[in-house]
Structures are given as C-alpha cells and as structure tokens.
Amino acid sequence: MVNEDREILEKLKAGDVQAFDIIYGQYYRGLFVFASQYVDESDCEEIIQDVMLWLWENHHILIPELSLKSLLFSAVKNKCLNRIAHLQMRQRVHERLYEKYKEMFEDPDFYIEGEILNLISKAISELPADYREAFELNRFENLTYNEIAEMTGVSFKTVAYRISQSLRILRVKLKDYLPLILWL
C-alpha cells in the first residue's frame, strides 16, 4: 500500500490526471465519513472538494515519501476545525446582534410604527411652510378650514387648497408605505 501511494504521488506530482482520479476515488468515502464526525454532511463535501482542489493545485510540491493518507486526513480535519470555529464565531455574532436589537424582534410593531412615524414626520416637515401650517392645524389641532382661514388671514378656499396639496404631496412621498400606514 505504501509503495502504491508513493507511485501514485509521483505520478500526481508529474501532473497525471488519472493519478488524481485514483486518489479521489480511493479516499473520498473515507474522508467523507471522517469529516462527518466533525461537521454536517452538507459541509463535508465542500471540505473534501477544497482539500482535493488544494491537492491538485499543489501537486508539483508534493513529497512522494510522505503518507498520502495522513496528508489528506490531516487536511480534512484542519478544515473541519476551521469550519467549526467559523460557525461558533457566527453564532456569537448572531447572539450579540439579537441582544442588541431584541426589542425590535420581540415587538416588531413597535419598531415599524416608530419608523413609519419618523417617515411621516419627515415628509410633513418637508412640505412648504404655508401648506405644513394649514395641514398641521387641521390634522393635529383639529381646527376647521374656517378657523384656520381666520387665524392665518387667508380665504377658506386657500386653506382647502393648501390642505389638499399637502395630502397629494404626502401621498406621493409615502406611496411605498401607504399599505402599512393604513394598517397601523
């Protein structure tokens, strides 16, 4: 077996594709079973592919006297351990993010309502000053058009026009959020 591995490694080092195919066929199943002790089966195939790709890309630097079996299994084990470390790091990041934004996840309505209210406030603040004043007096102070007209010194029709234009502008600016606004 050792002599066979040495011959195959010498052929692989020379760039023989058939030698690579033999190695792949001979070791794939064992490497897969070995890797499955560390990681999920979905990761096993990717890890073995990476190791085999590395083997082919670096065939010219291989030392035929080394144990091919030890090389492959060590490489797979190291890649598995790296994958485990990566998954653990990802889990820690997810946990930190969850803790940081837990309120949003626990009460998404609170977050959505706050964001929608911010968007509405911003859109109202961007209205022309006369339009904004008439709109706010009508919608937030519950004043009638006549009361607003007396207060601002303009006609009833001017107040009606300013409020209707405000609503038109707000509908355009908030068109993407109207279903959520209506829902809230």
From TrEMBL:
InterPro entries: RNA_pol_sigma-70-like (IPR039425), RNA_pol_sigma-70_dom (IPR014284), RNA_pol_sigma70_bacteroid (IPR014327), RNA_pol_sigma70_r4_t2 (IPR013249), RNA_pol_sigma_r2 (IPR013325), RNA_pol_sigma_r3/r4-like (IPR013324), WH-like_DNA-bd_sf (IPR036388). Pfam families: Sigma70_r4_2. Residues 118-168 form the RNA polymerase sigma factor 70 region 4 type domain. GO terms for biological process: DNA-templated transcription initiation. GO terms for molecular function: DNA binding; sigma factor activity. Keywords: Sigma factor, Transcription, Transcription regulation. The keyword Ligase does not apply. CDD domains: Sigma70_r4. The keyword Transcription applies. It comes from the Bacteria. PANTHER family: RNA POLYMERASE ECF-TYPE SIGMA FACTO, RNA POLYMERASE SIGMA-70 FACTOR ECF SUBFAMILY. Belongs to the sigma-70 factor family. ECF subfamily. NCBIfam families: Sig70_bacteroi1, sigma70-ECF. This is RNA polymerase sigma-70 factor, expansion family 1. It comes from Bacteroides oleiciplenus YIT 12058.
